[in-house]
Amino acid sequence: MPAVDLKTVFAKLKSLGGLFATLGLTLHTTEHGPSTQMTVTPELQGGPGVAHGGALMALLDTALGMQAMEVALQRGSAASTVEMKVNFLRPAAVGTSLYTRTQVQSEGKSLLVVTGTAFDRDSDAPVAFAVGTFNVYKPARPAAQQTPEAPRQPD
To answer: What is the pTM of this model?
Structure first.
C-alpha cells in the first residue's frame, strides 16, 4: 500500500494552481482505474466552438500521468512524462464533458508505456487517443509535500 494515494497527489498538484486548475481537471476512480475529466469551456477553444488540441493533449497527458503515477506510488516513486503522441479523432464542442480511460501497456523498471482515450460523456464517442512513455523515479520530495516556488533566476 503506498504511503501517499493518487487522489492526495492529484489534489496537491491542483492546489498549486497552474494547468490542472486552469483546465478544471478532476480525478475519479472507476472500475477501469483513474479517470481524469474536464469540460470544454470557451476559454479552452481553439477553433470557433471547439476545444484547442493543446487542452485535449493536457487532459490526456494528465490522465496517462495519473495512471503512471498510480503504478509509481506502489513502488514508493513518482512518474513524469518522457514523450507522448496524440491522435485527434473528432472535435469536442464547447460545453462537452470529457472523461478518460487509460491502461498500462508495458511496465519496466524505470519506464512505463501508457495508452488512453478521451471520450465525450454524452455520446461515449472517442475524441482523442494517446500513447505516452513515463519515467519512474525517486523524487527529491514527494508530490504531496510540494509547494509553489518562485521562478528560478538565471545564473
So the answer is: 0.86
